[in-house]
Write a structure and sequence with these properties.
mainly alpha
């Protein structure tokens, strides 16, 4: 297995970890992401588990199920998240917190690695 494949699979494992964290520890995930009010109701907990947990688990599985095609798909997901967060930072919410800036940088880095690197 090549180093680039290992990088892509490492990002996938990281993504799976985020999903598992949100699924198994939704209150902690809600606090970490700034959605702490969401953890105060069963409906909010369900949303954190489903959207953060389920979506990230599913996205993280893509490279394991479909190889490079799945890795590119995961890259497109990270690119969409990065673009959305950029709009939030620049125009919509003007959230320039260090956490958001680190997140958007990570999302673009992951997108580039997943989309551009060979398998």
């Amino acid at each position: 297995m090549s180093i680039t494949s290992l990088i892509k699979l490492g990002i996938a494992v990281f993504t799976l970890g985020i999903g598992a964290y949100a699924f198994f520890l939704p209150k902690a995930a809600a606090r970490f992401t700034g959605l702490s009010g969401s953890a105060d109701s069963p409906r909010g907990m369900s949303e954190v588990r489903a959207v953060l947990g389920g979506a990230f688990i599913g996205a993280g599985l893509l490279p394991f199920l479909y190889g490079n095609t799945g890795a590119v798909g995961l890259g497109v997901i990270y690119l969409a998240i990065g673009i959305t967060r950029t709009l939030s930072i620049a125009r919509l919410d003007q959230d320039r917190s260090p956490s958001s800036l680190i997140s958007v940088g990570s999302e673009y880095l992951f997108a580039a690695l997943l989309i551009l690197l060979p398998w």
